[in-house]
């Protein structure tokens, strides 16, 4: 099982949802950096569970203990080991799932691969809980990027049939992205945010769940970063973002919409401004030939509805080899999208920092 991301800054994620602790080892992070720990905590709280009516009732403080790599507030070039304790565990909720796999979750595929030796509690290593240390690593990398003037930010583009406004892909600014980070729900349009909450609550009351789309942008990424063919910015971002559980799709710039356009509509025409080449539109999403153009890198990610739902669904008993019915108990997010926003930002920051260091 590989839970390792990056080639120069390497982020190794460890733990399971109900193990004593989870964490990250970040190797290759430069020395002499003074991380703003308060800012990192604030970033992590945007993902932490139990914060509102529309997230799981599992309460985790997600306090990070730094075991190594930071001395007197400064990184020292040694691997940074960050540990987060799991404190609010109810493993009995999961006992039945060893025999009756949840449709849409990893219980069945993990059983095929690991048999009885899979840690089913809370989804084990497949759990969204593992994105907490990922967010720690991402928040650290964001501070590296900020030193280079680069900002990464994301918002809820849609939940079910409710849409937020979209980024102005050619003109999205640092302040647009920063404004999203102080909000309880990362949306551009607060009225849309209100309706998104209502939509999630309605699904929860029906014993069901909803999915959605997250839109992410990275601004001030210099032109010329990335490689053609297999090591481009799109390649690496896509591979890393699929490491976040429940992600089912990604599109850059105009994405699948580009397939319906003519070349004359899809091409982003170049122009000079202050000796810098820019484009007036950004259908290319800031990447051409795997290499950054200097325009904002913009992409959207599809998040599936939470698999664990209270509503009865057909499943099977793996021990008795019969068909049966399952209603999932326990504490689950009725929608993963709000909590996944910071996960997308974190992974984007790690990938870009890895390119730029
Ligand atoms: C932040 C976050 C929270 C999640 N919360 C839940 C949850 O409460 N219940 C659940 O069944 N799945 C949850 N998931 C999704 C599952 O972990 C995921 O669907 C499962 O591991 C199968 O992986 P896959 O959907 O990528 O194939 C969450 C994912 C993330 C990123």
Major sheet characteristics: 5 strands, antiparallel
Protein structure class: alpha+beta
Order of helices and strands: EEEHEEEEHHEEHHEHEHEEEEEEEH
Roughly what fraction of the amino acids lie in strands? 15-25%
- Shape descriptor: globular
Structural topology:
Layout: E1 4-5, E2 10-14, E3 21-27, H1 37-45, E4 64-68, E5 70-71, E6 74-75, E7 80-85, H2 107-114, H3 131-147, E8 151-159, E9 162-163, H4 174-181, H5 190-205, E10 212-219, H6 233-241, E11 247-252, H7 263-266, E12 270-273, E13 276-279, E14 287-288, E15 291-292, E16 297-303, E17 313-317, E18 322-326, H8 337-356
Antiparallel strand pairs: 1-2, 2-3, 3-7, 4-7, 5-6, 8-9, 8-10, 10-16, 11-16, 12-13, 14-15, 17-18
Helix pairs in contact: 1-3, 3-8, 6-8
The structure holds flavin mononucleotide (FMN).
Residues 56, 105-106, 123, 126-128, 131, 244-246, 304, 306-308, 332-333, 336, 339-340, 343 line the site of flavin mononucleotide.
Characterization of this structure:
The longest helix has 20 residues, at 337-356. The strands form 6 sheets. This protein has a 5-stranded antiparallel sheet with strand order 1-2-3-7-4. Strands 9-8-10-16-11 form a 5-stranded antiparallel sheet. Helix 1 (37-45) crosses helix 3, helix 3 crosses helix 8 and helix 6 (233-241) packs across helix 8. Helices cover 25% and strands 23% of the residues. Strand 8 (151-159) and strand 9 (162-163) form a beta hairpin. It has helices spanning 37-45, 107-114, 131-147, 174-181, 190-205, 233-241, 263-266, 337-356, and strands at residues 4-5, 10-14, 21-27, 64-68, 70-71, 74-75, 80-85, 151-159, 162-163, 212-219, 247-252, 270-273, 276-279, 287-288, 291-292, 297-303, 313-317, 322-326. With 357 residues, the chain is of the alpha+beta class. The protein starts with a strand and ends with a helix. Bound molecules: flavin mononucleotide.
